[in-house]
Design brief:
Blueprint: H1 10-61, H2 88-91, H3 99-105, H4 131-136, E1 157-162, E2 171-174, E3 187-189, H5 230-235, E4 243-247, E5 259-261, E6 275-277, E7 292-294, E8 299-304, E9 309-313, H6 327-336
Length: 351
């Protein structure tokens, strides 16, 4: 009588498992690449919507939103206590289908039981001292999050405000329980190399440009209490050649993250220290809170003044402020500046 086998032998089972393991090893990188490509497209869509919101704001007010509402001496004197310290993303809320949230965080009232008044030519109060503004700022908005990043991982502190001016970083980072619940952002306005400069300071010149550049010559579109127009951009460097919004991790990309940007407080950030990769230490050109950065493989994505979104390659843009930076660094500053007047070919750092 013949005997019919009804199960795999152990050897056959091991062979099948080995084949499946090999197939998974071959397919996993492809799946990861497809997922990252989708994430990058969604990130670009977020930036495009933010850029379109800025254009719609311009249509209503005849100017682009300021990078932030910080302490100021010009165009009006605003003390530290009177500085609202909100960033451009807040005034764009009505143009991002968040009109109800905008009404809450700017609701008039008395004392601290109200929202913040956002005006370029006058101050109000620090936004986190006002109950409605602080509570509304805890809303998490997906449009401000790059899907390639783990934005809401545990951190020690978040930035209640941060922007670039005179090559420095006025900021306040805090880590109370309420602060850590604040909505975060991967996106920030571009203030040029280091925001507005109120004094003449020479910039590195690895390209041998004539006349030699200055740091102030690389001033960006969205600085502290700025009121720039698209017409000015078109006449000067051109809207398609000037960065308007970019992405960043708001903290270290490796090890303990440490900090994160909040969408309410992130202001115009600078490009003077280059672009950071999300998978290396900041001293080797990695991400941190003072750099535009990303977890994408080769580039940081930016929305340009014309509303288009393109990647700017990491290349050799990273610089720590000493010695001569690379030519990539200089090309990045020309993209970040709105009125530098240089016409170098920047295609080598565009993704």
């Amino acid at each position: 009588m013949s005997h019919r086998r009804t199960a795999f032998t152990l050897i056959e089972l091991l062979v099948v498992i080995a084949i499946i393991a090999v197939l998974m090893a071959l397919l996993l990188p492809a799946v990861q690449k497809v997922r990252e490509a989708a994430n990058k497209m969604l990130c670009a869509s977020n930036l495009r919507q933010i850029g379109l919101a800025a254009h719609n704001y311009h249509n209503d007010f005849g100017k682009l939103p300021p990078g932030n509402f910080g302490q100021s001496t010009t165009p009006v004197a605003v003390s530290a206590a009177e500085a609202q310290n909100a960033g451009a993303l807040v005034v764009l809320l009505p143009y991002l289908e968040q009109d109800n949230l905008y009404k809450i965080v700017t609701q008039p009232g008395s004392g601290t039981a109200r929202g913040v008044e956002l005006a370029v030519h006058r101050g109000d109060a620090n936004w986190w001292t006002l109950n409605l503004a602080y509570t509304g700022a805890q809303t998490r908005l997906k449009i401000f999050q790059c899907p390639s990043d783990t934005l809401y991982e545990e951190v020690g502190a978040v930035f209640l405000f941060l922007y670039a001016e005179n090559g420095g970083f006025p900021n306040m980072a805090r880590g109370t329980q309420g602060d850590l619940q604040l909505g975060r952002s991967n996106y920030a306005p571009v203030a040029g190399t280091g925001g507005r400069f109120f004094f003449q300071y020479p910039a590195p010149n690895p390209l041998g440009l004539v006349p030699p550049p200055t740091m102030g010559g690389y001033e960006g579109i969205m600085c502290n209490r700025s009121e720039n127009t698209l017409g000015q951009l078109a006449i000067l460097d051109g809207t398609s050649n000037t960065l308007m919004f970019g992405e960043g991790l708001g903290g270290s990309g490796v090890g303990q993250r440490g900090t994160a940007w909040t969408w309410f407080g992130i202001g115009g950030c600078g490009t003077g220290l280059g672009l950071g990769r999300g998978n290396v230490h900041w001293m080797q050109g990695g991400a941190d809170w003072w750099r535009f950065s990303s977890r994408h493989a080769s580039a940081v994505q930016f929305c340009f003044g014309d509303g288009s979104v393109r990647g700017v390659r990491f290349g050799q843009t990273a610089w720590l402020g000493s010695g001569m930076p690379s030519q990539d660094w200089a090309l990045l500053q020309q993209l970040a500046g709105r009125r530098d007047g240089y016409t170098s070919d920047v295609s080598s750092i565009l993704d």
